[in-house]
Amino acid sequence: MPSELVMLPPQTDTTREWGSRLAAACPEMKIIVAENHTHAAEVIAHADAAFGTIPPDLLREARRLRWLQAPQAAPPAGYYYPELIAHPVEITNFREIYNDHIGAHVMAFVLAFSRGLQHYIPQQMRRDW
Q1: How far apart are CA 92 and CA 73, in angstroms?
Q2: List of residues 6+ apart from 45 with CB closer than 8 A
Q3: Tell me: the pLDDT tens digits for 9-63?
Q4: 54, burial (CB in 10 Å: exposed 0-12, middle 13-18, buried 19+)
Q5: In sequence order, what DSSP letters do the residues of 52-113 get, joined into one string?
Q6: What is the rounded distance in angstroms from the CA atom of residue 121 to the CA atom of residue 61?
Q7: Helix 117-125 to helix 99-114 angle, to the nearest 10 degrees?
């Protein structure tokens, strides 16, 4: 039986696309994009992994769940509740995935400001050479 990942609701166009891209990149896994709570309840019992926020009633049914990916770097208040904390599932989040990108972005601004681009770009837009 292949490993199963459930994308928990609510879905957006972005999460649906992620599900499609994951399915294409990992054909050995079964990727399930649950559109609503009822669908998630039907499939969570066989899931090895899940993405999103899992409410207590779904967690009780998640007999094989080993990994839960939080949908944000800092999950909102209430994401961690006593049953989830006590559950043996490994929970990960997006913390620190943007560190290199932010550092490069900040350095680009430092270099731009050091060259005075904040003055030149508006002049260029006015066609003031």
Answers
A1: 9
A2: 61, 62, 63, 64
A3: 999 999 999 999 999 999 999 999 999 999 999 999 999 999 999 999 999 999 9
A4: buried
A5: S---HHHHHH-SS--EEE-SSSSPPTTSS-HHHHHS--EEE--TTTTHHHHHHHHHHHHHHH
A6: 57
A7: 80
State how far the alpha carbon of 129 is from the alpha carbons of 16, 116, 117, 118, in Å: 47, 14, 13, 15
* Residue 104 CB coordination number (10 Å): 9
CA distance 12 to 46: 23
Q: Is the pTM of this model over 0.90?
A: no
* Residue in the structure block whose two tokens are 């009822």: 38
CA–CA distance, 9 with 63 (Å, rounded to integer): 19
Residue at 77: amino acid letter = A
